[in-house]
Structures are given as C-alpha cells and as structure tokens.
C-alpha cells in the first residue's frame, strides 16, 4: 500500500512512548489507520488533533501490516478547541465518523461533507450557522451506511435541533451499538450546549 492524499484526522490514540495510531479519513480510500512515529512529540502533537486536515503519506509493505504515516499539517482546528461549542462539535463529528465507518471503504461524499462541516464550524460566527450542516451530516452518514432516508431541508436552528434529536436513536442503535467507548457522551454534551443557544 502506498497512498499520498489529503486526509482528515478523525481519531488518534497513544501507542508506546511517543507514537500514535491515527485514524485518517481520505476521499478515495476511506478510513485508514496508521502508525505515526513521534506523534506525541512536540512537533507532531499539534498535527494529530482530530479535525485537522493533513497531507498524508501512508505506506505499508503488505495489506496485513499496519501502515506507517507521515503527516504534514494543512489546516489546524486547534484555535477552535478552546471554544466550548465548536470544540464539542469537532469532537463529536470526528468521534462519530471514526466509530461508524469501516476501514478502507471509500465514502467521497462523507469526506467532502465532513470537510465542509468542519470549515463551517470554524468560520461561522455562531452555531446557528453550522448546526444545520451538522444535522445534514448525521443524516448523510446514516444514509451512506444504509440506515437513513432523504436529505432534509433545514430552515434554521430549531429544525436542525429537531433533526438531531430524531437522529440520536438511529445513531445509537445502528452506528454505535458495537462501540466500547461511550461515544454518545460527546454528542450529549454538544446537544446540551446547542440547547442553551436555542432560547
């Protein structure tokens, strides 16, 4: 395997003393897990933050081997991780994507939608600007994996929150049923924070 492509870091967990295992979402190869040497070091720690866009060079000698990745930062989401609402949205969407998608299956529409959603979270002046995109992303994810219906037309924050509430049961039952970690806890925090701006 040899892949050079833009990717979204959707998860990173420590491995050994200094490395991380990063899960990367690429447009053409889907989710790829890869070993990043020095990922917990001073230079790479800011790069392997979930939500960041990177240029990834991924290599493996065989399909059964965990690939090695070299990552170069393209766009950082770090500045928004100090803001509670954007940080919650980035954490939830990345955790959901990392937990729900199987490895090595291409989902180009999800890749492009997640890039657009992360851009909206980081550029909109408030959650009113990106909550509809978040609701649409969840519906798209359900649909791409065979559990959803048509893309909804979302007029504003109120409708987006209704759709988010309706999607929660489907996500818990179909997409996250086999996960060990409580990924939905990140969604609960996000939904509570979104509820505060609704009033």
TrEMBL record:
The keyword DNA damage applies. It comes from the Bacteria. Residues 1-67 form the DNA replication/recombination mediator RecO N-terminal domain. GO terms for biological process: DNA recombination; double-strand break repair. Keywords: DNA damage, DNA recombination, DNA repair. GO terms for cellular component: bacterial nucleoid. The keyword DNA damage applies. Belongs to the RecO family. This is DNA repair protein RecO. It comes from Qipengyuania nanhaisediminis.
